Amino acid sequence: MTENRLRVGIVGCGKIVSQYLESFRRLDGVRLAAVADLDPGRAQAVAEEYGDGVRALGVEELLAAADVDLVLNLTVPAAHAEVALAAIAAGKAVYGEKPLAATTGEARKVLEAAREAGVVVGCAPDTVLGTGIQTARKAIDDGLIGAPVAATATMVTPGHERWHPNPDFYYQPGGGPLLDMGPYYVSALVTLLGPVVSVIGAASHTRSERTIGSGPRAGETVPVTVDTHVTGVLVHESGALSTLVMSFDAVATTSSNIEVHGPLGTLAVPDPNHFDGDTRLYRLGGSEWETLPVSAGYEGSGRGYGIADLAATPEGQEPRASGTLAYHVLDVMESLLDSAHTGKAVAVESRADRPAAVPLSRKEG
Questions:
Q1: N or C terminus: fewer CB in 10 A for the chain?
Q2: Reduced to 3 states, what is the DSSP secondary structure of residue 87?
Q3: pLDDT tens figures, 315-329
Q4: Domain range enclosing 52
Q5: Are 119 and 190 part of one and the same domain?
Q6: For residue 319, is the peptide bond before it cis, meaning its omega torsion is within 30 degrees of 0?
């Protein structure tokens, strides 16, 4: 780091990169130094769009660059571990898009390599640091619903191929509704209710191919090799039970994204794929839902705030959007798929501390 700013190099300049660039323009603690992509033209376009001296480099050049402290890994899930391990070998900290890796085995190698190298690993989603999930967490911590008993988390969509021009990776190992969208929901559930100790699940695979609905490949089909509807129950260390439904096979739902139930009330929690949104409370004996005032989290945040939080974390402490949390979330999801395929409950071996709460604050210039 220099001038108290974390210097970031991005590997992977696909669709998601624009959201990170928007945040980086607003964050005092982060400076974008370089970008790389397997398509040099795409990296060059991102560098020119961002300006501010950002360089378009080859991947190996970026990993060797002296002015890159942290590598932001925005590659497809199947490449997450490979890129992360290369960055760690180059002495760089790593922050990756979710999931941390395609499998817990690969993710474990990333964390072990980082420990040996003495570098920090962070991982999306950082949506849980925004005002939506953090306001709900504060309501729980303040006892507004009593000790949580149960939660439901529901995400249904007819499939990302309807809007994404290159949806192949959503239907390959490392993809599917659980590994794609599950990290948002499971990370939120762990933030709200604490770590998970066991799971039981069921899953289905309804179609062998999907048809791309937009872009230059519209009408082309892609093979489906993963489960596209996954449901299950997560048993939290606290004793609370969360019911999870993740689907690329359904059209719509009237359910809240997440609801948390306690003896004194129920919370309707906003979409964990977003940073903000209303948290609503229905109190025991009440007659209607009330919207709680925003009371915690980074205001006005967006993708990349987890990196700013990492940059501000004291040395020796884990950032809130940590690799350890991401590993636990991946372990929960992999265990849920194992349970779905075996028909038996599966113990979740990993543990992650419930991340520290985020006081209501702004992290931008």
A1: C
A2: helix
A3: 889 999 999 999 999
A4: 6-126+302-322
A5: no
A6: no
The string of pLDDT tens digits covering residues 81-103 is 999 999 999 999 999 999 999 89
Q: How far is CA 105 from CA 110, 180, 212, 241, in A?
A: 9, 18, 31, 27
pLDDT at 365: 47
CATH of the domain at 333: 3.30.360.10
pLDDT at 290 over 70: yes
Residues 163 and 286 in one domain: yes
Decide if 143 is inside a domain.
yes
Return the amino acid letter for 131.
T
In a domain, 66, yes or no: yes
Of 172, 209, 207, 187, nearest to 132 (Cα)?
A: 187
Q: β-strands 229-236, 241-247: how paired?
A: antiparallel
What's the predicted TM-score (pTM) here? 0.94
Are both 53 and 146 inside the same structural domain? no
18 and 41 in a common domain: yes
Cis ω before 223 (30° cut-off from 0): no
Q: 20 and 8 in contact (C-beta within 8 Å)?
A: no
Task: For residue 6, give the nearest of 28, 31, 27 by alpha carbon.
Answer: 31
Element containing residue 86 per DSSP (H, E): helix 80-89
